[in-house]
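Notebook, bench 3.
Goal today: get a predicted structure for Aspartate racemase from Maribacter orientalis so we can plan the truncation constructs. The sequence was checked against the plasmid map this morning, with no discrepancies at the termini. Length recorded as 248 residues. Pasting the sequence as submitted so the record is complete.
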Amino acid sequence: MVFCGILTIKEERIKIKAMKKIGLIGGITWQSTQLYYQLLNTKVAEILGGQNSCECIIESVNFADISSKQAAGDWDTLHSQMTDIALRLQNAGAEIILICANTMHLSVPTMKKRLSIPILHIAEVAGNAVKNKGCQKVLLLGTKYTMELDFYKDILNNQFGIEVLIPNEADREIVHDIIYSELSKGIITEESKKLYLDIIKKSEKEGAQGVILGCTEIPLLIQQEDCDIVVIDTTKEHAYAAVEFALA
């Protein structure tokens, strides 16, 4: 006689937790936006386990349009555009806004005047990361707008007491041009990596204890293992801080 046993399947207990919905302004560029999406979902799954993923909404812009307005200095139009997008995300149920780019945080003061939900400022996240790493003096790399204007450096200095170095004018042009002509298009070259690393090494001689990758595309090129000093990956830090907010 053949007896057919009954298989008992032990079901995995999946931890399900209510999370706040994250609104992302993406496309600045899409290469870094896909990193955000991957980081957000990977971190939520790591924390909650099972089949959990991030609850988010993305509105992605055309970077060619953004880039041309930046080059023309048409910041008022860009501030208005960013605000309109954030309002649409808010109306769609977002409970916090992430701008998936460092430079466009220039628009935050304008955006805050009309939003009723918070914006997670990437410079504040970077400042916390720098302090947590025990650094007092850092190199800031990014677009020429991020490096030369005060909106980012002031937060690091005034809120966190961090001394900020920026590359010399010629090196700023190199950093900026590689972002716009290569990284924004997903082009990664060893030559450009070497140029960035040479600039970082110069800052070490000036006492830099760390480098802030203040453009969300730079982590495509530079990682901690490439450098002797602390590397602050703003894309990763920003995404992880958003998950912390969403799950609080």
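The domain at 123-233 is CATH 3.40.50.1860 (Rossmann fold). Strands lie at 22-26, 56-60, 96-99, 137-141, 163-165, 210-213, 230-233.
Flagging this for group meeting.
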